[in-house]
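Example complex used in Figure S2.
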Amino acid sequence: MSTTNNEKGIVPAHHFDSVAQEEDAGIQGIWLFLATEVLMFGGLFVAYAIFRGMYPEMFHHASKYLDTKLGALNTLVLIASSYSMASAVRSTQKGDTQKSFNLILITIACALIFMTVKYFEYTHKFHEGLFPGANFSHPGADKHLGLFFGLYFVMTGLHAIHITVGVGLMVWLLIRIKRGDFSPHYFIPVDAVGLYWHIVDIIWIFLFPLLYLIG
Amino acid sequence: MSAGTNYLTHSKGLKSWLFTLDHKRIGLLYLGAVATFFLVGGFFGLLIRLELLSPTKIFMSSDVYNRVMTLHGSVMVFMVVIPGIPAVLGNFFLPIMIGAKDVAFPRLNLLSWYLLMLGASIAVLSILLGGVDTGWTFYTPYSMKSADAVTTIVTGAFIMGFSSILTGLNFIVTIHKLRAPGMTMMRMPLFCWSLYATAIIQIVATPVLAITLLLLIAERVFGIGFFDASVGGDPVLFQHFFWFYSHPAVYIMILPSMGIISEVICTFSRKTIFGYKAIALSSVAISLIGFFVWGHHLFVSGQSELAGAIFAILTVLVGVPTAIKLFNWTATMYQGSIKLDTPMLYAMSFMALFLIGGLTGIFLAAMAVDVQLHDTYFVVAHFHYTMVGGVFMGMMAGLFYWIPKMSGHMYNEFWGRVSAVLVFIGFNMTFIPQFIMGSRGMPRRYHLYDPKFASFHIASTIGSWVIGLGFLVAMITIFKAMRSGKAAPANPWGGTTLEWTTSSPPIHENFEETPVITGRPYEYN
Amino acid sequence: MSASHSNHSDSSHHIVSASTNLTVFLSLVALTVITVGAAQIDFGGVWNIVIALAIACVKASIVLLWFMHLKYDSGVNRVIFGSAVFFVALFFGLTATDVFFR
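Predicted assembly (842 residues):
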């Protein structure tokens, strides 16, 4: 049961006193979920920090295997997607659902560009023998380079999974917009997906310098 | 007994249960699940104790023993004690005790239950795939290389972790947003404060378990190397990751139990709680300080002395808010009008047994002492005193206390008391010998042992039969009260919290009208 | 009406202006350019990573404050997010007292 949009106007679910209370609860719930995402990725950042502290020269050496231009491109693409997503939320709040629809489409397009770039990066790595873990086989590499690439693939891989889920959520929003579900009086799902998407962007904001800008 | 419908009769049929959004029904779904898992985990525990009657093999090979030992721990931790009180009694009573109609997110609540069931099924599937012999802690490097179904059981635990996270998320928002008029935070029942403190841990700690288990799977599937010393990784890093969750996890287990003790002690002493604010805030203090101490599990792992010293000092600190509670409960009972009904017997057992469990934890917090006692039966006894003597006593107290409200029937008081006595006696028979033999060097998780410990093991095993019988009597008594027994009035115990103002069982919406609160609970005139 | 319900909503109903969104976007782009540029210069010792992380923190903060409207929400949401960051820092800090002091 959640807010229902019916002939009586927007009505809160039975256990809430008001729509405002229900929306606040929903947003607070999203922030709690985002906190768990920060802690989960945070674990990976801790592992990164530990290994970088243990093998500083190896990390320096490792960054030359990553293409800074592609990383920077992806950073700008995600920043643009955050902009379009934030604008989509704003458009919904203003009642311009057609514009929201288009902006969410742009956001999805940015996400797909990001994934395409990552696809090329990954396949290039595999071509060089830079597989995660046991299959790591790059000749002449630093003895511990496999650890860096373990981090690289796990961190960007988990991030990419989150991007994919984000795209799925945005497609769901597009369907709901077409159904006429959202208005200035009810836009919380758009806001919620937006918050999720911005966290995905923020994680990349940290991944970029830590993985690509070491040397 | 209420005329008209209640939440049990509100709708009928299997689908009305499997698709319910009613927090009370979800609490009962969890009760069925957790009780079943408890029987499974308990069975494995009894099997362990049976095999240990002799220093040499009786009916299990060492490989099988290691698998049974791992299952006992994994099932009990992930499928019984972690969900335990919050998912069963918390789900049922949190909304009612704050005067709400449901939790903030009923659909997420149902999803939490399905995630527990899915994760548990996958974890148990590991038995059929050859089992797991690493111990429930899955330490690297052995867990990376063990040929067994580690990935399966760890996947199950990963999914169950999300069940726990969603419950915590739901409870925090419920407490923040759905309290009835006049119910300020400082007028909430102490059980609700304990659930709040628990929920904080569920949100903060469980995601780190998630990444830990993912990294272990990545090690096994891709050989990712973070915990593999041969490629420059660090196996002790796994222990940091694992215990960052698993130590706060023990506070997920104990805090709700302590919340129940506060409720039961007040009602059965017919006296207001001594030091409401101290108990409420000490719950949050335990939850926060609990995050600073995980390294006490790593004292002998090769951890630096600096870290060891820091963790030792911080660990001693966490005993302080715990002690505050014990003193305050004692002060509450002092000059109270004590009624020794079953819930109170279990609550008093809690106080005695958790005192021992907590104090022995302080012994282990001293690094120099821990060096001798780590990985011995002393540790096993310590955590069973806290987890069984603490968590289970609270769970039993809560179940007996609240079953009249949940089912509308009184339980059989004679058999309830019999179970409490059997459990208390059996528990001590099982675990006191373990303190002694642990201090004399009996290692934990060993299948074959030095014959000089045989008499201790025999005593412990006999004790396990007594406690097993006690729990069986308790479960039968509670189960029977779900279906039959004397009709329960709205307030059989003279409790002062909101759930006793509703009918037994409550109506679907909990309250006819939203209650308005004008003071703290536990006031008796 | 519940005790915790006030007339003032926690969150969300403030609409961020289009020009604010644009300013945030342009700032993020600029900071990205700066951080790539700074990575080409050797500041010596730990300074490169300190600067890179500082810039990343600024970028993250402006996303949080404006795009995620934390600036306009009630304190609860800020406490929730801040706590998560605190505990990650704690996790790193205490683990480091082991790994780097063996």
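Chain B has 16 helices and no strands. The interface with chain A takes residues 21, 95, 100-108, 165, 168-170, 172-173, 176-178, 203-204, 206-208, 210-212, 214-215, 218-219, 222-226, 231-234, 237, 241, 244, 509 of chain B (CB under 8 Å).
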